[in-house]
Design goal:
It is a multi-pass membrane protein. With about 80 residues, the protein is mostly helical. The chain is about 50% helix and about 0% strand. The chain has helices spanning about 20-30, 35-40, 40-50, 50-55, 55-65.
């Protein structure tokens, strides 16, 4: 499914949602699920091994997903939302 428009960086928007990524990160961030969703496997494994930075890293990361407009997926495309 294509999403209209281009992001401020000139690329098309990602097919991934920043709201979904943020909520996954807040509720399942200890397992790195939000990062697996966006394709950032290395960071997801780090979160998995540290239990989301004892919960702090995953909570802050989830909030940043929800409030920031420049979070990207694996291909560098800005998340839609």
């Amino acid at each position: 499914m294509a999403f209209p428009g281009t992001a401020p960086n000139g690329q098309p928007y990602s097919d991934k949602s920043k709201i979904t990524a943020g909520l996954l990160q807040i509720f399942l961030g200890g397992l790195g699920i939000g990062r697996f969703y966006t394709g950032h496997t290395g960071m997801a494994i780090a979160q998995l091994l540290t239990c989301g930075g004892l919960g702090f890293w995953s909570l802050i990361d989830g909030i940043l997903f929800l409030t920031s407009n420049d979070r990207t997926d694996k291909q560098g495309r800005v998340l839609r939302g």
